[in-house]
Write a structure and sequence with these properties.
single chain; 326 residues; alpha/beta; Rossmann fold; 2 domains; four-stranded antiparallel beta sheet; 15 strands; 33% helix; 19% strand
């Protein structure tokens, strides 16, 4: 069993930080992963000691000492599962959540329950020596630690944070070089897109409306990962200046902003239903995206999850925005 020592930092206790949620659900079974409560989380940091011990600080401000390389890992979130697989750690994964559906091999792993409702009993049965949790698991983390289980909390709200977390997971699992290679590959792909769209003048960039959910209407605000993806692909999110991750908006305001592109997540084949509802919205017949038939169903998990597939999302968005360039 992996030995681990957890020291809760005095600053965290003094600040009394409370994480109320690890995602923002827009419907039952549809979850957009976000750091709890929209709070800024601590940047994870790692330090390797001469004897091989790894000392890290996770995003709940907890200092963790890991003395042995983990061999039996459980992931409590879909995004963290994708990071583990992308790092080539699939043979060490012994448990994932019901929502961990990518890559397809994740479906073959034992389930420990839901993303927000993991089963402590099932986790214990799988005998993990390392658990990768998210900020939504503020209640489960101390319970797991009381049982002698090693837990590290990570979650990314932007690309920089994702790179940091990939590096941290790679270091803790003893494959730091693989982490560097994964990050370099993602950066190369995203920078290739940026180099092309950099030539587009600001006034020529497409205005994008991303519909996170249709009832009620919700879009992506300034702090949403989707907004960063749109910007990297050379677009302008029409609600990117709203100081809220997923604001509720109105059909009238969307029409007023005249988006050139409309995107929405294709949740389990719901594209036709969403398209029909858009056609009936008052004033939308004059929206450029509707008039020019530039309404697209996007890969939902690819755009919503802060994982390695962000590079896929940026490339997909760039092809939609500027097909003549990509």
């Amino acid at each position: 069993m992996l030995k681990m020592k957890v020291l809760v930092l005095a600053m965290v206790l003094a600040a009394g930080l409370v994480f109320s949620s690890g995602c923002e659900s827009v419907d039952e079974g549809i979850e957009v992963e976000e750091p709890a409560g929209g709070e800024e989380t601590s940047e994870p940091a790692g330090l390797s000691e001469p004897d091989g011990t790894v000392v890290v600080t996770d995003q709940m401000g907890r200092e963790i000492i890991i003395e042995e390389v983990p061999q039996r890992i459980i992931s409590l979130s879909p995004s963290n599962t994708e990071v583990l697989f992308a790092l080539g750690l699939e043979e060490r994964i012994v448990g994932v959540t019901d929502f961990c559906n990518y890559p397809p091999e994740a479906l073959e792993k034992d389930s420990i329950g839901g993303f927000s409702t993991p089963s402590i009993e099932r986790i214990v049965e799988l005998e993990p020596d390392f658990i990768l949790a998210s900020t939504i698991h503020e209640e489960e983390v101390p319970r797991l630690e009381e049982l002698g289980l090693a837990v590290m909390v990570i979650e990314s709200s932007d690309l920089v944070g994702l790179y940091q977390n990939i590096s941290l997971v790679a270091e803790v699992t003893g494959i730091a070089a693989d982490g560097e290679a994964l990050i370099a590959s993602m950066q190369e792909r995203i920078q290739a897109v940026e180099s092309v769209v950099a030539e587009i003048a600001p006034e020529d960039r497409v205005k994008v409306y991303y519909e996170v959910y249709s009832d009620p209407l919700m879009s992506a605000g300034s702090g949403a990962l989707i907004t960063e993806i749109i910007a990297l692909a050379g677009g302008i999110n029409i609600f990117g200046d709203v100081d809220e991750n997923y604001p509720q908006i109105s059909a009238e305001v969307v029409a007023e902003k005249q988006p050139d592109i409309i995107m929405f997540p294709d949740y389990h084949g719901t594209a036709d239903i969403v398209l029909e509802s858009m056609a009936d919205r008052a004033g939308w017949e004059n929206v450029p995206a509707i008039q020019e038939d530039r309404v697209y169903a996007a890969s939902d998990d690819t755009f919503a999850r802060p994982g390695p597939r962000i590079a896929d999302a940026v490339e997909e968005a760039a092809r939609i925005f500027y097909p003549e360039l990509f």
